[in-house]
């Protein structure tokens, strides 16, 4: 009998998880164990995959002068698509007005929340940006690896990879082969871990369905609808158009090739946790070179967050509407800019976006406590926006690969 393909296995696991979570009562939360093991295995792979994919990617780029061009194109894509996402969100939230007349008492915030937000908001948006640029330079690369400081590791590996192409033979080839060898091992290991995906995803989703319940969604229904609609428009219309007309590839085929990575992003709420799978799939199923994927995807997983950018914008407008404060056009421009900044600054981990919201709220002069209004539904929106974040990263990798003249399998 033919073996069921991975995305079908995951799909059935997902359906089963929703049913078990919904009807299974409290005890089914124990299935979370499988999800925890799966996420731990993915996390184990993040640092090796990020460092080796960048080192392999950069040391494989034919002419090192091309690195600058690649960097510029990538940044242009990141900022361009995030900006489109924010505008989509802004348009919808102004049209649908989900916060106007919302009957909301401030919901209790879990301990430590206000403190986390206050710390985030302790500087202006400008200071946050300066701070971000200083923090990406690792003063101790080993410590950056140990503490999982993604941006710092990326910067160090980019530099190390670049200068490995500047040394004389035989060292240049030796280093390139060494990176390549390490990368191949991590990819083989990744494929083994991916066989756990259906059961891992089952465990994660059962828990979420079992503990979330449906009641919380009622009072915030219009807000959830606005964010979801915005994410849907961006993921199903804007990005496919970019794929079709700029990269000239079939959005549907690309989506199919990326389905395992997207479901992992959805169930883990973490772009970083999904990254090893995203890299594996884009190389194997789509045929993007390691030069491009090793550069665009790791960087994108922390910097390119279209879903988060859209969400920041809608959530802050919702909070303003719920407080009965109307933001004028200047404030909305500030909102667009700071939402972009917050999405770039957010780490690829669960709930990073909601913490970064402090920067945006402060910039437009809204109370930080407003976050309490939306926390109840944040988990589900986090799952959705993370999926869009990862989807945009993979579209970016395809767009850049095509612009470099690569032939793809889709
Ligand atoms: N969880 C998101 C991600 O990993 C970030 C966010 O909270 O918006 O992409």
Count of discrete alpha- or pi-helical segments spanning 4 or more residues:
18
Mind describing the biggest β-sheet? none
Round the Cα radius of gyration to an integer and report it: 21 Å
Number of strands: 0
Strand content: under 5%
Report the order of strands and helices: HHHHHHHHHHHHHHHHHH
Helix percentage: over 70%
Poorly predicted segments = none
Query: Helix/strand-derived class?
Result: mainly alpha
Query: What shape does the CA trace take?
Result: globular
The set of bound ligands, ions and cofactors reads: aspartic acid
N-to-C span: 27 Å
Whole-number mean pLDDT: 86
Can you tell me about this structure?
The chain has 410 residues and is an all-alpha fold. The protein is 75% helix and 0% strand. It contains 18 helices and no strands. Helix 2 crosses helix 14 and helix 3 runs antiparallel to helix 11. It is globular and about 70 Å long. The model has no long low-confidence stretch (mean pLDDT 86). Aspartic acid (ASP) binds next to helix 17 and helix 18.
Keywords:
410 residues; binds aspartic acid; mainly alpha
Short description:
The protein is an all-alpha fold and 410 residues long.
